């Protein structure tokens, strides 16, 4: 009787924790990641540098779209990793979010520019259509569709665990 | 520069706590030299940690945005008060505060307990072990001391606007103090089990600590509920949100624990329950931390997170709990009591209470875990909501209430014939029955569970009135703290019942200068203004309400848009009166120019928080009297 009681007492918590271990490890669990596919909204917004327009036509093929702003501290943290990705040949479009033009340009001048194009979304219209809740967020765009999204800072771990699997599956960014 | 000093001091503190743990468990703890050593090492460890934390607070006050965490969560425009509270507005800083509080309880215990106390060294060892585990968690996975170099941002980001609120600035610290306070009871339980000498009365050593923690936990939960009501605009007092549940479970366990504690102190009965509950309370507190910090559950409390944190916490909590249960299961024999519990004694009622509370905890845990298990197995998200919890909590609480009614005049360790108390009991039954009849006659309540709850609430209330009468005029001894706390319980039951019966809400669709009516109130949309403040833009609506009782007043619900994060918040407008709150929030403007406005009548909602404060007050008074009694 006592042995049974002992066994139950010890097994229960062990079972409990094994469950949580399995749960967390299932698919490494990233609350910020979202893989629901949706069409890139139609837009036409000024570039950050000049008055020229950027629209859907400029985003054919595969791109990362990174939402950033000069007031966003985490974007500053993320910046280093994005620069690295950019150097490795991953094309990144910047979506400058609710930011003053001068602030954004001086930020880019100070820290460097990892972006191929920067959309100046002053009022956050495009961001709203894309379902952005804050900066930074990063979208993976493929043939006019958003196929992956991450809310929060993208770093090496997030890149490898959230973006790489779907990039390999869809065989994008393979040309180089 | 200073931040590196703070970082270094924290690492140093971790090392000292680890030494303290080693000394307590490797050297012979009976040796007074060893106890002195452990005690001193602990105090110094705490001192380093405290200085480190104070430096951190100082850096936050002075806007040192070289520190990544402060830059991310504070802003030059914030008042100093919020600069400090921004420290616990997100994961890293709040974890830091959590650890400081954990060690603070330890150091108060250390300083106010004589070194000859049997379990002191080992208890400090256990506390140090827990502290080391969490400090490593802090330093390795969620380091608040990281810096951004070389260029610091000028103004910082901002604290989340919904957190810029006095209730929220104090809700986390008080809740944390409550949670981690149970480390003292837990540490003593473990020390007692390791020691293995059944003659040591560990229960009486932890009573004051446990009761004060319980009171703080009660206040902390009530504050959280109040904040969600008026600042988040949830419009109620409890939502069975998973994070509310993980705070409720330790509270339930702690309530059972402090009851069970008084039995074990008096008669060494229920020792198995007491030990088990002390382990459960602390485990549930840690489990709460795990659920909130790992981001497993989406809620207002989940912090941005990565899975490494969840894994680390899970591992550490697993180690603590598995070790405790193994120890417990092997020491069962020294805990078992040879005597039986007399029926209709206080002990018997408290064991029934333990069983009921155990069931409540188990059911809540089931409600929290079930969606997770379901998702794991079937990959579908489901949620367990109020109907499940109501179905369990209402009947069980009422049963507990009825047992409480019968237990009021029971005695310790001997059975009492109910016949002796027939007159106050039947009088209370009569009064409660009569008032129920009157309430039903005038208010026409049809719901049986509401009627029954009101009945049980009044029953307890009236019964205690008799007790108070005898206490004051016949000099018959009763425990005054118990009276206050249980009166709080009866008020809680009655106000929750009335609240769910009478409260109502409606979404109005209303244009400027138009009127509408709701439950005897004429509501006139009088004005709409745009206002600019230093860190947000606001839309302020103004409504004139005319009550059928001739009273009229103005309510001004608000919507704010904060610059720093672009976040939109709603500011509720509440007209408070003793019986009800009139509660308004403003939603969106529709295309035809009308606004969606939500109006709620919340009955007795103040009484719910008041009853929680009453219970906490009773607990604090008891703790105070215990401390004073010792001197």
UniProtKB/TrEMBL annotation, chain A:
Record carries keyword Membrane: yes
Entry's localization field: Cell inner membrane
Record SUPFAM superfamilies: Thioredoxin-like
Membrane topology: Single-pass membrane protein
The Redoxin domain, residue ranges: 41-155
Keywords for this protein: Cytochrome c-type biogenesis, Disulfide bond, Membrane, Redox-active center, Transmembrane, Transmembrane helix
Primary location class: membrane
GO annotations of cellular component type: outer membrane-bounded periplasmic space; plasma membrane
Molecular-function GO terms, alphabetical: disulfide oxidoreductase activity
Pfam families linked: Redoxin (PF08534)
Transmembrane residue ranges: 7-24
GO biological process: cytochrome complex assembly
Cleavable signal peptide: none
Coiled coil: none
Name under which the protein is recorded: DsbE family thiol:disulfide interchange protein
Organism: SAR86 cluster bacterium
Phylogenetic classification of the source organism: Bacteria, Pseudomonadati, Pseudomonadota, Gammaproteobacteria, SAR86 cluster
